[in-house]
Amino acid sequence: MNFLSLFVLIPLLMLLALVVCRNIKQVHTVSVVGSGAILVLSAYLVFAFLGERAAGNDAEMLYTDSVMWFAPLNIHYAVGVDGISVAMLLLSAIILFTGVFASWTIENQTKEYYMWLILLSLGVFGFFISIDLFTMFMFYEIALIPMYLLIGIWGSGGKEYAAMKLTLMLMGGSAFLLVGILGIYYNSAPEGGLYTMNILEISKVMIPMDAQRLFFPLTFVGFGVLGAMFPFHTWSPDGHASAPTAVSMLHAGVLMKLGGYGCFRVAIFLMPQAANELSWIFIILTGISVVYGAFGAIVQKDLKYINAYSSVSHCGLVLFAILMLNQTAMTGAVMQMLSHGLMTALFFALIGMIYGRTHTRDIREMSGLMKVMPFLAVCYVIAGLASLGLPGLSGFVAEMTVFVGAWEHQDMFHRVFTVIACCSIVITAVYILRVVGKILYGEVENKHHLELGDAKWHERFPVVILIVVIAGIGMAPLWISNMIGDSLNPIIEQLAK
Fold first, then answer.
1. pLDDT tens sequence across 176-203
2. I need a labelling partner for 264 at 20 to 30 A (CA). Which of 68, 219, 223, 329 fits?
């Protein structure tokens, strides 16, 4: 068995173990041990991958394996990773591990909650290791389905509406995506021979231009819906606001990255000519996402909604960078996926902890929390500084790389939209500093808040891990940047054809 399959096998074993658990302590033990094992496995994969590259192995995908699954349609269970996949697997493992601790206080149907959470993570890991279009799509759907129940049962506020809206919009995106995948499949052998779902095999075939013009927009929109691209972003704020803490962490930190990764791996890699021709349409839409999300965050009063609109802006920046179709900007896009995933997970973890104490997310009802819960307050400031791109933290490295890459285009159209996207940093600084000033500083207005306690050990542990990783990437980004940049060479070569 290929060791990449362990990323799917471990969550499956966790699910089986959770079925026989009889109390909360056993559930917590299984979840911590399982998610810890995945984290260790992803760390090992990073070192093994970098070792292979240092030894001179320049294959497009490493650790590839393929097993026939459904012969009539030539569908395989095919796995393999490059630098982008490795980075995404590490991100997912970190957020799953910290999300388990962030869910420590869930008491309602604890076992079932963790089972759906693990199933979501199984879909995510399977998606990032797949190099077969059908297998990738199957894992994509496995990742989406648990969201409905996790929000609808364990969420808060208008959870039923939010869960339904999220599910319907993402299933609409999946319909577009399925048509795009089938279109690619039936054009994967233009000169006769066997049709294939294998991404590496399809990339060696030139899909007819007419087919590319039709299926590129469908595929990009299908993945773009999950990446909260304007005007398909409306599911995201409602879903974030109603979801439990760990689900918000996985939702914003990992699930939305499936959209950006899919645009890389499928839309642009397999249909490069259409990407070159039609990218301007989506640059306009993603440029709107970046600015609209930032302005949307300014007018919100709910902490989760503020962070949700911030996610729309940051994920818009990922898709914007991808559409620049050059190596620097695309490297920045993957760095932004990593950075945004970590800082958003940190934000949602902290918001969940603050809400658990104050029982409100309305910034107008909070003030002076720095005096009451200094640990959580300081961590919130650090998360805010990472979000607005302070040097030394991951946000600066990612956004700087994106903007430098976007500025490499000499024409007026790209330059104008690059400047517009850059303006989002200023807008981000406005809403971050406003929120920090409002809820953390000043006098405590609600006297009940003076009785509140600071973070407990199971809350401090995931928060510290996330801050260390954010600072680590900000201080030493080069190894990740090089790992990602080398893996982009095949995509750049495709675009140059």
1. 989 999 988 888 777 777 888 888 888 8
2. 68
